[in-house]
Amino acid sequence: MEINALAREALVNAGGIIESSFSPRKYANELCADAYDKQWRFDQQALPADLIKRGMAVEDSSAPHGLKLTIEDYPFANDGLALWDIIKQWVTDYVNYYYPEQTLIESDLELQSWWTEIRTVGHGDKKDEPWWPLLKTPNDLIGIVTTIVWVTSGHHAAVNFGQYTYAGYFPNRPTIARTNMPTEDASEEVLEKFWAKPEEALMQCFPSQIQATTVMAVLDILSNHSPDEEYLGENIEPSWEENDVIKAAFERFNGRLKELEGIIDERNTNKNLRNRCGVGVVPYQLLKPFSEPGVTSKGANPKTLGQLVKFVASMIIVFLTATVDTMKHSWGKIQVSFHGNKFNIAWRVMKEMINLRKQHYRVIETGLEKETIKGYAHRIIGGRDNIGGVKYEADFDVSIDDFGMVGAILVENEHHKEMFINNIVLHGFPNGSINVTCNSWVHSKFDNPQKRVFFTNKLREEDLKNVKGNGEGERKRFERIYDYDVYNDLGNPDKSHDLKRPVLGGKERPYPRRCRTGRPRTKTDPVSEQNSASVYVPRDEAFSEIKQITFSANTVYSGLHALVPSLQTALLNPSLGFPYFRAIDSLFDDGLKLPPTKIEQGILRNVLPRLIKTVKDANDALQFEIPDTLDRDKFFWFRDEEFGRQTLAGLNPCCIQLVKEWPLKSKLDPEIYGPAESAITAELIEREIKGFMTIDEAINEKKLFILDYHDLLLPYVKKVREIEGTTLYGSRTLFFLTLDGTLRPLAIELTRPPMDGKPQWKEVFTPSWHATAVWLWRFAKAHVLAHDSGYHQLVSH
């Protein structure tokens, strides 16, 4: 939730990084909503369903994972399906243990409420769609949970952590195209300039210097793993570790993930798998479960983290709450252990006291009031756990006759600052200890007098009421309220009319909901919400202190807003492109010297320490690390085979799809967008594959594949072209599956709809060794890659 807040603050906001540097500029979020409306379905977020939908696999019970891939060497799918099966088996073990009978699923009101809320509130604009899975059986729950775990782990890793590796050298993945194709309504003067200096013309099509360097810095940040990252399957929750069945299931899960690591390593050394192995090819390891931080291998230096954050804890009040039980227990003393901050941060606390005052708390299940117990706590000398937390202990004398089973523990923080509680362990029970997993911040009673409740196994209803919002009031930082709202905070109309943005969410523009903040409406637009210095997220959803230092909303926001003015000052002309390829290479060799203005360089050194290099004259230089792809092969981005390979093993490997029908036709209204038939003809394709087979044979044998951004982008072409220094087309790119299992690009079609009194324009470009045609092909590839980059950032990611 905090990364979503960060994005609204500095990335997808009006005039932010995405709108400034990616296609289709200020309409980026509208396009994202368009894609959600037309393409998104929950059931197709499951990897097997996604592959089948795109024609990249068919069901086959005899094949590995029950699917036969259309392209056998498809690294994203090969590794992804193995990971999917491992996740599904883990989820199955847990679900079958907790829900051994089918009737338990439908009778679990809290579970049903959770799924109903996802469908009818979180995705309220699609709540009536027929494809939503039912939740009536254990298998239903297994499918739903596996999909959610996959999207937030495997899928996200595949499209996020390789960003700098694949896009750090921006000619490989330009984020925007600034000039039209030289052949579109071209005058003799334009064509002559293109013929005379094609490299210079291509450089003008690429992103400007400020667009490229800003995006490169942002991708470097986004590609990083936080030093406190927890990998899926790495550590079991302490409360689950006490259950032998669940612990065994987790250990099997962990073991399978480790086996997958070895399988992926072996695949990456198999020279027969040309989509993941070869001279200069970066091994595909984005889905390695416990790999070093992705393919980027970056992270903050842990030695400096202890110097960055300090945390002071103080007085806490804890209440034991019991439920009446007909059975009597001869308890002795109950020992409560408090783990403090869960991160390796020193607590400088001389003396702490936990005062257990006598209070009354109404027990929901019984309606009876039980008196809480008084005691004192002390810090254990040398009492640190293996993650640096501080331990406290308190002893309680419990009446054998009067006190029932402990249902919950209420915590009140008397200090003026919040405190993080990792877990609470109750010792002294006949059947063993009770481990209450908290992993939560406890607010100060001076911010909110309401006590925090941590449950053993009961009394959840009251807490659920406390965290559900009612759509009213502005949220405070210390609160844990979870509520929903539309995306009406992306614009800034009070600052400028040009920064006004439409609301995402609702009948006009369907979209998922965000976390409600309740900020006041803007003065000039009653439907828009005001911006603020920080964006509310429920306290337990906020980044850890370590992550806030390395990747927080404030530091990234400050860094980006210090970086952009510095770049503007250094580059002078924001629309200036790179003059030639050697100038791009100099970003990695020499860096870009930044001017010594105000305190911005100090901010940049702290936020982007790997990129900001100090030079001899005491100024700073923005010097980028060489991406692994470029370091292995300086001309990797130039090769058509690499262009095709990255659709299967690159940054956006989930958009390539099988061509199932011919001829290719648009589904848009021809009265508005022109003739629907594609200009890519059967004769052209058969010529490009050298008569190897007919078009019908190629389709029947599943040899043709396509990247199709035609219908999604074409409605935006006219309005995007009204923005200075930007252009757009609808595009289709066709590939042929060769005998060695690689994809060879065959043709790129670029289309402009009727506009400004001109008819529809479309042209097909093909690979060529002819001097003029090969440069036109490079131009066309730059446009398609900009389309793919925009779709990746706005939809896939």
UniProtKB/TrEMBL annotation:
SUPFAM superfamilies: Lipase/lipooxygenase domain (PLAT/LH2 domain), Lipoxigenase. Residues 313-456 form the PLAT domain. Pfam families: Lipoxygenase (PF00305), PLAT (PF01477). GO terms for molecular function: linoleate 13S-lipoxygenase activity; metal ion binding. InterPro entries: LipOase (IPR000907), LipOase_C (IPR013819), LipOase_C_sf (IPR036226), LipOase_plant (IPR001246), Lipoxygenase_dom_3 (IPR027433), PLAT/LH2_dom (IPR001024), PLAT/LH2_dom_sf (IPR036392). Residues 497-532 are annotated as: Disordered. Residues 1-306, 446-797 form the Lipoxygenase domain. GO terms for biological process: fatty acid biosynthetic process; lipid oxidation; oxylipin biosynthetic process. Residues 512-521 have a biased composition (Basic residues). Keywords: Dioxygenase, Fatty acid biosynthesis, Fatty acid metabolism, Lipid biosynthesis, Lipid metabolism, Metal-binding, Oxidoreductase, Oxylipin biosynthesis. Residues 497-511 have a biased composition (Basic and acidic residues). It comes from the Eukaryota. Belongs to the lipoxygenase family. PANTHER family: LIPOXYGENASE (PTHR11771). This is Lipoxygenase.
